[in-house]
Automatic annotation (TrEMBL):
UniProt-recorded name of the protein: Adenylosuccinate synthetase
Pathway per the UniProt entry: Purine metabolism; AMP biosynthesis via de novo pathway; AMP from IMP: step 1/2
Binding locations of Mg(2+): 13, 40
The encoding gene: purA
Needed cofactors: Mg(2+)
Length: 427
């Protein structure tokens, strides 16, 4: 019953899409368990590049069943356009399964996301503006709309009216916006219902039966550990649980079923949106990482903030996720630096701190304590085994492994599927 969780160990964009796609050929199901189309997962297959937002990256592997679990928030218009975009490129999407319990991102959730960010001004979170937070807020407030509600018109009408009652007061009186008509929202949502119906299924039952039948299930996280609503740099986080526990609640699978938890870890650090980032660089090194690493958001097109590797964060990810392995990505991007600083601890108000502080104020005051490792200049993109790497690159990987607290079982040396060094098998 091998069930694997693959998740981001930093602030997202670690290369989860590539890693999932790599494993996709050997697994039976790939399941998204949280988040929505705030994600942007890039997969490069041969000369083809795909940017997936809502769909699990396993959709590109013909033998694999892609699943959108109950913990995901689904924007139906994005879902349908992503599906038709893939169909036009010859990708078969007919196996997709969507939980009837997944919540729907309605047009008013998107509006609320945008106006609240504008209202926050300088204090904004820097969300993707896709309605993610307001949709999860409605879920928790028990005024959410679920996929299954699309198939009962009168229930849908009642639920949309209930959700809009309070929202229209806030939109008109606080934000000075026009009220949103429930009838219009219902009409739009009903327009999606029949197109989505073929995919809707009892995904909890199907996934648990698959595990009983010894099928291999891969849970693909969106975002990353430090963007987790509980364990991230709150309030500068997303509104779901990308950490390993989220796979259980977001897919309806018990923790005893999970056999492996793989943390995707970039060889340096990036972040999009607001919030603290101790190793962030504002100099030409940061600019070079952005340029060489192509660090521009897949979803919003924003430049990613860039900085050196932070081992404190990696250790934290190992702990809160119970990581069994790391998949280190983008090692090739570091080629050419004579020396590479790595953050091994923080200095907070004059004291050395080895572990991530729980206090928001302390984390905002954290200054990186660096150790400098020797770099390498040889091209590593065609390395196929660990021993193909230059000695200094090997030492960099070993040092990161030691500091991070879990074995590095694969190394990415380029964006393509085969630009990967596999050290320990994941399956
Ligand atoms: P995700 O959100 O975690 O799936 O990551 P993104 O797709 O947003 O960003 C990762 C970027 O790095 C994508 O453009 C990938 O194609 C690329 N990528 C992934 N692994 C590697 C790697 O090992 N080397 C290089 N150079 N690029 C990589
Ligand atoms: P993938 O899956 C990086 C960030 C946003 C913002 C915060 C909250 O590609 O790694 P939200 O729209 O979720 O309410 O925004 O989270 N964010 C991401 N950053 N990668 C992502 O996804 C992200 N999804 C959300 O920039 O700071
Ligand atoms: Mg991304």
């Amino acid at each position: 019953m091998p069930a694997l969780v693959l998740l981001g160990a930093q602030w997202g964009d670690e290369g989860k899409g590539k890693a999932t796609d790599l494993l996709g050929g050997s697994v039976d199901y790939v399941v998204r368990y949280q988040g929505g189309n705030n994600a942007g997962h890039t997969v490069v297959v041969g000369d083809q590049k795909y940017a997936l937002h809502l769909l699990p990256s396993g959709i590109l592997s013909p033998g694999c069943t892609p699943v959108i679990g109950n913990g995901v928030v689904v924007d139906p218009s994005v879902l349908l356009s992503e599906l038709s975009g893939l169909n036009e490129r010859g990708v078969d999407t007919s196996k997709l399964l969507i939980s009837g319990n997944a919540h729907i991102i309605t047009p008013y959730n998107v509006t609320v996301d945008k106006v609240t960010e504008r209202f926050l001004g300088k204090r904004k979170i820097g969300t993707t503006g896709r309605g993610i937070g307001p949709t999860y807020a409605d879920k928790i407030n028990r005024v959410g709309i679920r996929v299954q509600d699309l198939y009962d018109e009168s229930i849908l009408q009642q639920k949309v009216e209930a959700a809009l009652d309070a929202k229209n007061q806030i939109l008109t009186k606080l934000y000075n916006r026009r009220a949103i008509a429930a009838d219009q929202v219902v009409e739009e949502l009903l327009g999606y219902a029949e197109k989505i119906r073929p995919y809707v299924a009892d995904t909890v039952l199907i996934l648990n039966q698959a595990l009983e039948d010894d099928k291999v299930v891969l849970f693909e996280g969106g975002q990353g550990t430090l963007l987790d609503i509980d364990h991230g740099t709150y309030p500068f986080v997303t509104s779901s649980n990308p950490t390993a526990g989220g796979a259980c609640t977001g897919a309806g699978v018990g923790p005893t079923k999970i056999s492996r938890v793989i943390g995707i870890l970039k060889a340096y650090t990036t972040r999009v949106g607001s919030g603290p980032f101790p190793t962030e660089l504002f100099d030409e090194d940061g600019e070079a990482l952005r340029r060489i690493g192509g660090e521009r958001g897949v979803t919003t097109g924003r430049d990613r903030r860039c900085g050196w590797f932070d081992a404190v964060i990696a250790r934290y990810a190992t702990r809160v996720n119970g990581l069994t392995d790391f998949f280190l990505t983008k090692l090739d991007v570091l080629t050419g630096w004579e020396e590479i600083p790595v953050c091994v601890a923080y200095e907070i108000d004059g004291k050395r701190v080895e572990e991530l502080p729980y206090s928001q104020t302390d984390f905002h005051h954290a200054k990186p304590v660096y150790e400098t490792l020797p770099g390498w200049s040889e091209d590593i993109t065609s390395a196929k085994s660990f021993s193909d790497l230059p000695k200094n690159a090997q030492n960099y990987v070993k040092a990161l492994e030691e500091m991070s607290g879990a074995p590095i079982s694969a190394i990415g040396v380029g964006p393509g599927r085969d630009e990967t060094i596999e050290i320990n098998s994941f399956l």
